[in-house]
Write a structure and sequence with these properties.
Layout lengths: L1 E5 L8 H14 L3 E9 L25 E5 L3 H14 L3 E6 L5 H13 L5 E5 L9 H11 L4 E4 L2 H10 L5 E3 L6 H4 L5 H8 L5 E5 L8 H12 L5 E5 L6 H11 L5 E4 L8 H7 L2 E4 L8 H8 L4 E4 L4 H4 L6 E4 L4 H13 L2 H13 L6 H14 L4
Parallel strand pairs: 1-2, 1-4, 2-3, 4-5, 5-6, 6-7, 8-9, 8-11, 9-10, 11-12, 12-13
Helix pairs in contact: 1-15, 2-3, 3-4, 7-10, 8-9, 8-13
């Protein structure tokens, strides 16, 4: 197939950029791909982070990527649609995760459709986005109703998509692994020595936002510390005041057991933090999917997560991690203690089972799902 892929990639950072880049690589192994990427994502006043640029020395990138789309320049929306149409793709793939891109995507698709190319597949990360409302719903309908095929990474998201676009042909497949970012030769002993850590280590990783439930994890920590001298690593850029969490840690009397690393973590540093962790904790209050879960599983680390969104499908209860109700610090603490109570051999067995299950989360599985969706709408 001739596949046009439109989405973020290097020099932009974050899970969606990594996802689109790794998908392009996987598609290129079996198809002819044209990858059009972004010149600019968000204006500075709208982006809550310090920068949206990837500072990694060895970033994930595709050499053939063509930076075209600027979210604030309508001329690039028209040019992107025309460039894609001139190439005459059999299938156009667009990731969808926020209503911010509704207008640029709609213009691109209008230019494509004008020249007869109507076979578009949407990869839906967040059907309604994290900030939901009437306008977000209308924007989602504006764009997604122009698709012919859809892929979601959890059944709840697939259901939300069918509600938004009645009759949509939706396929559901697991979110692939980001294990390529987790690979490294560093041992847990060396990682802990480098970071100055002793005892069991819990890792909370990624951008810190209210829905990710870090305050619930801090509230669970006194119960865990009563049994084990754990260190909680909170690693990632804060998109709300760090001082709020520092105050909570002091009020709970756990500040000595918490280490905050308030910055974006480059690709080179990712293996260091995951190698040091005994357990990755994702106490999300609500979520559709989680790239952090796939980072953890990609390097063999068990996960304690809440039973929300795709996490319930990603974590194999008792085999690759444990699931708890969202917003329940007591249950979260008990799940962490359950793992730490296990003999060393049983803890090691988690890593073996996780690594054995990687085929289910491979990029080839996603490509196969895309091929099946394409065949369903008449593309071979």
């Amino acid at each position: 197939m001739r596949i046009a892929l439109l989405g973020p990639s290097y020099p932009f950072r974050g899970g969606i950029a990594h996802y689109t880049t790794l998908l392009c690589r996987a598609l290129q192994a079996r198809h002819e791909v044209r990858f059009l990427t972004f010149r600019r994502q968000y204006p500075a006043w709208l982006y809550p982070g310090r920068s949206d640029r990837d500072v990694s020395v060895t970033p994930l990138r595709v050499a053939e990527a063509e930076p075209m789309l600027d979210s604030l320049d309508p001329r690039t929306w028209l040019a992107t649609g025309d460039r894609l149409a001139d190439w005459a793709p059999d299938l156009t793939i667009i990731p969808w995760w926020t209503a911010y891109w509704a207008l640029p995507d709609s213009v691109v698709l209008a230019r494509l459709h004008r020249q007869g190319y109507r076979r578009t597949l949407f990869l839906c990360h967040n059907v309604m986005g994290h900030e939901r409302g009437v306008l977000h719903r209308l924007a989602g309908q504006l764009v997604l109703r122009q698709g012919r095929a859809f892929i979601a990474h959890s059944e709840p998201e697939a259901a939300a998509l069918r509600a938004l676009v009645p009759g949509a042909a939706v396929r559901c497949t697991p979110h692939p692994t980001y294990g390529v970012l987790s690979r490294g030769t560093i041992s847990r002993h060396d990682a802990c020595c480098y970071l100055g850590l002793n005892g069991p280590v819990l890792l909370f990783f990624g951008f810190v936002r209210p829905y990710k439930g870090l305050s619930d994890l801090l509230a669970a920590l006194p119960r865990v510390l009563a049994r084990f001298p754990v260190t909680l690593l909170v690693v990632g850029e804060f998109w709300q005041p760090l001082a709020e969490y520092e105050r909570q840690a002091r009020a709970l009397g756990v500040e000595a057991a918490v280490r905050f690393v308030d910055r974006y973590i480059s690709n080179e540093e990712v293996p260091l933090y995951f190698a040091a962790a005994d357990l990755v904790v994702l106490p999300y209050r609500s979520v559709t999917g989680s790239g952090v879960a796939q980072l953890a599983l990609g390097c063999g680390r068990p996960v304690v997560a809440t039973r929300t969104g795709a996490l319930a499908d990603t974590i194999d209860e008792g085999r690759t991690g444990f699931l708890t109700p969202p917003g329940d610090p007591v249950a979260l603490a008990e799940a962490i203690l359950h793992f730490l109570d296990l003999p060393a051999a049983e803890q090691a067995a988690f890593e073996e089972r996780i690594l054995a299950s990687q085929k289910r989360f491979s990029w080839d599985e996603l490509v196969a799902c895309i091929e099946s969706a394409a065949a369903e709408i008449g593309i071979s």
